[in-house]
Amino acid sequence: MNLAKTLPPPLRAWAERSVGPLGAVQDASHPRADSRVWDITDAQGRHFFVKQSPTPASYACETFGYQSAVPALGFGGAPRLVASDARDLALLLTAVPGTPLSRLTLTTAAHRSAHRQFGALLRRLHGSDRMPGPGRRAAAEAVEHTATTEVETHLVRAGALLTGHRRALVRRAAEHLLQLTDRLVPAHIHGDARERNALWTAAGSGRLAVVDFGRSRYAPAVQDFVRLACGPWQDRPDLRDAFFHGYGRDLTDSERQALTCLAALDAVSGLAYGPAHGDDEVTARGTRTLERLERGLFV
């Protein structure tokens, strides 16, 4: 059982300096030990979120994202950063309405509309920066890190969950990904683009907002499609089509190849993380992705 986390008095005092006295505070953390998020309400009934990042790196990614790229998503497309505190790794964010897509059962039309809007928002995020030289270099370095140091660490941690054949499959994917680096479009990515981080409001024709920029960084744009390709798109290719309709273009041939490679690396990451943290969903996703890759069914 997960116990509710109390907003520390210093963080409460810090938030009140920006929004005034708080009327209510509710724990809104994910069921993970390192997740610390609180839904707060000010005296006027306005909602905000206080988030304490788990690491300095996550804090740096999130503040960088909110300051440099997220404004391109427009009003209501993502939360707005009200204040940040590097000492306590704290962020104060406006609340955006909606429920995570992962918790909803939508009609076919509504689900397609949500993914079409998801694609449109990510395209704006990816294109919100003219991509300076340092950003391009950072995107290329991100590929190299993922395909070398990171994948080897995950292979070790996955241990007996991987057969020799699957280890070879993952290593071939990493090697091929490195060969594609120079042909991949660099972008300022969300970093964890999945249905859990997409909030849907059904009022009117429906509206989507994107949250949680703790992994925002420079990387190839295709990196942002991995969690969707390994999740809802596996059984619903119509959602993939709707997404790229909103995105405004389909994948290039190099991106298609890279997506398959990145899916293999994401799978072994899941097998390294899931069992150690009791996350059966992540473990199952990794196993399922590898099965589909072996059978040539990954799309």
From TrEMBL:
<protein>
    <submittedName>
        <fullName>Aminoglycoside phosphotransferase family protein</fullName>
    </submittedName>
</protein>
<dbReference type="GO" id="GO:0016740">
    <property type="term" value="F:transferase activity"/>
</dbReference>
<dbReference type="InterPro" id="IPR011009">
    <property type="entry name" value="Kinase-like_dom_sf"/>
</dbReference>
<dbReference type="Pfam" id="PF01636">
    <property type="entry name" value="APH"/>
</dbReference>
<keyword id="KW-0808">Transferase</keyword>
<feature type="domain" description="Aminoglycoside phosphotransferase">
    <location>
        <begin position="33"/>
        <end position="250"/>
    </location>
</feature>
<dbReference type="InterPro" id="IPR002575">
    <property type="entry name" value="Aminoglycoside_PTrfase"/>
</dbReference>
